[in-house]
Design goal:
This protein is of the alpha+beta class and about 240 residues long. It is about 30% helix and about 40% strand. The chain starts with 7 loop residues before the first strand and ends with a helix.
Length: about 240
């Protein structure tokens, strides 16, 4: 499948290198968050890569909820497992959990449908910054620390009328941010369509940590750097 180059499997365990994670973030999600750079001090594997691996392994269900518990570091030995009730978790050799997934309803393992939904969701999800987060933070008068920007994936979930998708796409319906001290909770509501017809809906939640007062010049510099990195990556590709 299209994810094969973004992880390495040994027996029942998978590992993701920093370079594999970075390649996925930039190449599939269009996500240039510095926390996914191989040299980042607080490097972590994109949550959307874990999401994609779960769908690839267990299929796409009509109702799914993903809760991210911890950030995955480079080379962590991960096990993706499903119990008798259908609960899925991603954990390491010490049973530390990184992702919990609950699901219900019809499930498809059709590779084309699973890949199509994975790609459209991840592409949508990768547009968090600057497209959605910047105007939300500006409206609230806050921003992440420009020296240590930290945006954490909290959870996401969706409900589908059917899983036999052909040309799915996602559209942002609403976005909101609740500020509590130095923490901001962001909720994104989205609509899912297939061939122009609405087939479902969902939401994604993010946590923005280390909030400080909004600084337009500092934010402009961050956005400029984002587009510089994006242009450089596309030029190399």
């Amino acid at each position: 499948m299209f994810l094969d180059s973004y992880y390495t499997q040994t027996d029942s365990r998978i590992r993701i290198t920093a370079q594999q994670a970075s390649d996925f973030a930039k190449g599939i999600a269009g996500d240039f968050n510095p926390i996914h750079d191989p040299q980042a001090r607080r490097f972590c594997v994109p949550g959307d890569l874990l999401f994609a691996l779960v769908l690839s392994r267990f299929g796409l269900s009509r109702e799914m909820d993903f809760h991210f518990r911890s950030m995955v570091g480079e080379g962590t030995s991960l096990c993706l497992k499903e119990n008798e009730s259908g609960h899925i978790d991603v954990s390491d050799e010490d049973d530390k959990r990184y992702l919990d997934v609950t699901r219900s309803g019809q499930t498809t393992r059709d590779e084309s449908a699973v890949e199509a939904f994975t790609r459209c969701y991840v592409a949508f999800s990768g547009k968090n910054f600057p497209h959605v987060l910047k105007p939300l933070m500006e409206e609230k008068g806050v921003m992440f620390n420009p020296r240590r920007p930290l945006v954490i994936y909290d959870s996401m979930g969706f409900s589908l009328e059917r899983v036999g998708l052909v040309h799915p796409s996602l559209e942002l319906v609403d976005s909101s941010m609740v500020v509590n001290g130095k923490r901001g909770d962001v909720t994104l509501q989205f609509r899912i369509t297939d061939g122009g017809s609405e087939v479902g809906s969902g939401s994604k939640k993010l946590v923005v940590s280390g909030l400080c007062d909004y600084d337009a010049s500092a934010m402009d510099a961050i956005v400029t750097e984002f587009y510089r990195l994006k242009a450089a990556y596309e030029a190399d590709g």
